């Protein structure tokens, strides 16, 4: 009999497999340690997509197979469907009073649901369409949406699977004010299968927004959310905290992270009896405060997009001698810049440096690549988006 018996070969196979497995685990631990030891992060651009389209484009989502990208034109409210080969696949407008209209302007960025289907939120509910723009499914709220605002940077529609999603939707409490009810639940779990809406996730007990004596307007409460590995991650716009929930238990968070910003200007709430519900208006000053605008979970790391806010003295400086209100907005955004960082479990933040010509982190694909938008400082006759990997800096 050959000295290399089946038993010996099997034992060797198990041993080799064990070595490979341990080696793989070791590499993962090495990378985890690299991320822990890093002082900052930057991006390596690995590819880009150029699309023959001119317009005011906000990037929204990438399909699971990586073949299509959704975007939105802020000027004419068109939803745009592109291929990652650079082709314009479809241009759809679902606003207005047409039979399949979402009602007014979109309240969320469009999102892919499944192969050849995408969805968007409007005042009339969550509507899904195929790649030809034909209506496929809907979920409509059983309550009137009395107030609707489009916060373009907050991704407030997230699918749990091909039928169910979590969405931030105002109006169920019936109060219809510009101020958030501390007792109201903040999200709706919707089903495109049966059209149901179920309210979930009350404000966390440790949130400043839970205080019924000091209420806050929707511009400072809108949540940034992400879903990853059975968990819901939530940060409210003007509060330096992040909460993590089990998706099967949304009544209370399982973890709270206090974010250690070096500067984060918060807005004071207002007494409910001082609110004038008949005089709702957007105050330019609301854009001078700190804000958490977007978050992603990337390889078990939390990425946040935030601004620190500007002081009253800085606001006075940028608003002096400015006649056009729109110019004041521009000057505020120029001063109150976005920053990007990795947030660890202790609340410490490590800055992310964006490459030249990059303006924003837009979404993550199934392969773990981050997609970054062009900063638009130089006018182009096409749209451009970059594919990148995050790299730790020691």
Task: Describe the protein in words.
With 394 residues, the chain is mainly beta. The protein has helices at residues 6-37, 312-319, 325-335, and strands at residues 40-51, 57-62, 68-73, 79-83, 88-92, 111-114, 117-122, 125-130, 135-139, 157-159, 164-167, 185-191, 197-202, 223-228, 231-236, 241-246, 255-258, 291-298, 301-307, 338-343, 349-353, 358-364, 370-374, 383-393. The strands form 5 sheets. Strands 18-19-20-21-1-24-23-22 form an 8-stranded mixed β-sheet, with no helix packed on it. Strands 2-3-4-5 form a 4-stranded antiparallel β-sheet, with no helix packed on it. Helix 2 (312-319) crosses helix 3 (325-335).
Key terms for this structure?
single chain; 394 residues; eight-stranded mixed sheet; four-stranded antiparallel sheet; 3 helices; globular; 24 strands; Phytase-like domain-containing protein; mainly beta; disordered N terminus
Topology:
Layout lengths: L5 H32 L2 E12 L5 E6 L5 E6 L5 E5 L4 E5 L18 E4 L2 E6 L2 E6 L4 E5 L17 E3 L4 E4 L17 E7 L5 E6 L20 E6 L2 E6 L4 E6 L8 E4 L32 E8 L2 E7 L4 H8 L5 H11 L2 E6 L5 E5 L4 E7 L5 E5 L8 E11 L1
Parallel strand pairs: 1-21
Antiparallel strand pairs: 1-24, 2-3, 3-4, 4-5, 6-7, 7-8, 8-9, 10-11, 11-12, 12-13, 14-15, 15-16, 16-17, 18-19, 19-20, 20-21, 22-23, 23-24
Protein name: Phytase-like domain-containing protein
